[in-house]
Amino acid sequence: MNTGIKHSIGVGSTVTLHLSLALEDGTVAEETFDGEPHTFRMGDGSLVHGLELGLYGLKPGDTQRLELYPEQAWGLRDPEKIHRLPRERFATDMQLEPGLIIGFDTPDGEEIPGAVLSVSKDTVEVDFNHPLAGHTITFVVEIIDVVPADPVDE
C-alpha cells in the first residue's frame, strides 16, 4: 500500500539510487544515471562505510554531492599490497603488460583483482590495492526509493 510517505534512509533500509563516483581528475569510475539504478540494503557492504554515512536521512527525490578523502572511502594505498611474483606463475602465452587486471585466487577460495604494474623476464609486479585506494572521490547520488528495514516502525 502506497501511503505517499517518503521514508528517510536509516539503518537496514533498502535503497534504490543513481550514483556517480569520480576521481580528482574528473575520471568517472562508476555511474548509473544513464542506466539501471543501484539497489542495496544499508550495511550490506555494497557501499564503503564513508559513502553510506552520506546517505542517512535522505529521502526519495533528494540529491547529495560529497567529496570523500581516501581515508573515508577506499583508504590509502598500502605499499605492502604490492607484490613481486615469479613470471612462471603466469601462463606462458599470457600477454602481461602494465594496467592489466588479473583475478587471483586466495587460499580461502575468494578471487581478488590485481593490477600489473611492471613485467620483467623473471618477475611480475602486481598491485592488490583497491583501484580507488588513495583517491579523493566525488560521490553524487539521487535517491529514487527507500524501503525502511521494518515498515511497522514508521
What descriptive keywords fit this protein?
single chain; Chitinase A, domain 3; mainly beta; 154 residues; elongated; four-stranded antiparallel sheet
Provide the succession of SSEs: EEEHEEEEEE
What is the third-level CATH name, the topology of the largest domain? Chitinase A, domain 3
User: Could you say which overall geometry the principal axes of the C-alpha atoms support?
Assistant: elongated
How many structurally independent domains? 2
Summarize the structure.
The chain has 154 residues and is mainly β. The protein has one helix at residues 49-53; strands at residues 14-22, 28-31, 38-41, 63-68, 82-86, 101-105, 111-119, 123-127, 137-147.
Written description of the protein model:
By secondary structure, the chain is mainly beta. The protein contains one helix and nine strands; from the N terminus they run E-E-E-H-E-E-E-E-E-E. The protein has one helix spanning 49-53; strands at 14-22, 28-31, 38-41, 63-68, 82-86, 101-105, 111-119, 123-127, 137-147. Strands 1, 2, 3, 4 and 9 form a five-stranded antiparallel beta sheet that branches. It has a four-stranded antiparallel beta sheet with strand order 5-8-7-6, with no helix packed on it. A hairpin with a 5-residue loop joins strand 6 and strand 7 (111-119). It is elongated. The mean pLDDT is 91.
